[in-house]
Amino acid sequence: MLEITPNFHIDERELQFEYIRASGPGGQNVNKVATAVQLRFDVRSSSLVEEAKARLISLAGKRVSSDGILVIEAKRFRTQEQNRDDAIRRFVELARKALSKPKARARTEPTRASREKRLKVKKARGEIKKIRQSRSYE
Using only C-alpha atoms, what is the Rg of the chain? Predict the structure, then answer.
């Protein structure tokens, strides 16, 4: 069980891991050993709440396929185990963000000074345009 928040856990059986060859550090070893990890998580059939599923899909962006599968690729480290841990850590971080409800934006009004400044700039701009207007000579 992965603890996302103190009161929410995800069963590790919902996560699928695929090990592939990675580029980057590792020398000759990089051509022989599959150290990179692809973590796959089916968002749509997961145990997450519907709101969290929608937020996770929007937060993940292009990392979610059209089928609703989230793919996190980890290839930063030289060992498979470190990359697996990195992928899990990144998934948990993303899931935490998806589970927390975004704070509603409080409506605000422009300050008196900002309104006056806007009108002052607008008046000055109008004056400049008035000077530029061609005069008709009668």
Answer: 27
CATH of the domain at 57: 3.30.160.20
Secondary structure of residue 16 in the 3-state scheme: strand
The answer for residues whose C-beta is within 8 angstroms of residue 103's C-beta and 6 or more apart is none
Question: For residue range 41-82, what is the model confidence (pLDDT) as tens digits?
Answer: 887 777 777 787 788 888 877 887 778 788 888 888 877 888
Residue that has been written with the tokens 């929410």 in this structure: 8
Which residue segment(s) compose the domain that 66 sits in?
A: 2-99
Look at the pTM and tell me if it is higher than 0.70: no
Does 106 reside within a domain?
Answer: no
